[in-house]
Amino acid sequence: MLEIRQAAPSDWPAIWPIFQSVVADGATYAYDPDTTSDEALALWMSPAASTFVATHGGAVVGSYFLKPNQPGLGSHVANAAFMVSPAWSGHGAGRAMGEHALRTARARGYEAMQFNFVVSSNERAVSLWKSLGFATIGVIPKAYRHSRLGLVDAYIMHRFLNDILARDEAETV
Amino acid sequence: MLEIRQAAPSDWPAIWPIFQSVVADGATYAYDPDTTSDEALALWMSPAASTFVATHGGAVVGSYFLKPNQPGLGSHVANAAFMVSPAWSGHGAGRAMGEHALRTARARGYEAMQFNFVVSSNERAVSLWKSLGFATIGVIPKAYRHSRLGLVDAYIMHRFLNDILARDEAETV
């Protein structure tokens, strides 16, 4: 059974190998494949973000963060990023975290969620976000240097949250 | 005669009132109108960015920064942001800085430039970027809380740089 909870600083040693393996693949995130643990920690658990982990039997199998996509006058639109351990890919952890993020964002008063850089060849992610109600609102041509495919487009995806049931922050998943 | 040069840390006291007046208006940038000088300095002259000033008779009349829009595998697309002193609005400083930024980005090896958040009601900016070859590649609905108009859309604008003449970095404008 998957559980999703707020991450503590002590979770980083379990998140880091996931970050590292996802980024090393050079197929989904722009982060430099040589990003160090300290740099990744600053990105993934920044003070501006709320970071969560998905666990199974106590082991961290995925993580996501939620933060405003813009400061100040644009802070009502959320941004989020998700990583699943390659060993757990295809077992629903991404979808569970996505739903959790939408409900958490709604509970925190965000009005929409936006992804700025979904790699177009990442079919699993594109199809997941579409199934969760996101629309592609922009295509950035040749924005990503894919490790195997060369230059590929990135999608900007967006959805409003008014139809989402706010998560009670005390509830566990 | 307008000159554009790399900004030095000692330029900040001249850039800050421009930043402050532009942001206080709540019509063009997402930055919180209450952003402090230290916060603004960290945003505008961050280590990741190259910051420039436009001067007239030695006085700073505008500023822009240039930086990668994404890290690592997306770092071939530049991002830039521009501010002109309200007193100098409409005198060509924005256009001069825009052209300077395009030529500088090209010289530094960027392949494209992307603006993530052009407020749709900011007609002067939208029309300037279109005239400099940018296309609107996405519309973020209701993304900006405009101080007078309420929620307005933001545009994502983009152009490739292959047709731009690289600026000789020794050259002055």
From TrEMBL, chains A, B:
<dbReference type="InterPro" id="IPR000182">
    <property type="entry name" value="GNAT_dom"/>
</dbReference>
<dbReference type="Pfam" id="PF00583">
    <property type="entry name" value="Acetyltransf_1"/>
</dbReference>
<dbReference type="InterPro" id="IPR052742">
    <property type="entry name" value="Mito_N-acetyltransferase"/>
</dbReference>
<dbReference type="GO" id="GO:0016747">
    <property type="term" value="F:acyltransferase activity, transferring groups other than amino-acyl groups"/>
</dbReference>
<dbReference type="InterPro" id="IPR016181">
    <property type="entry name" value="Acyl_CoA_acyltransferase"/>
</dbReference>
<protein>
    <submittedName>
        <fullName>Acetyltransferase</fullName>
    </submittedName>
</protein>
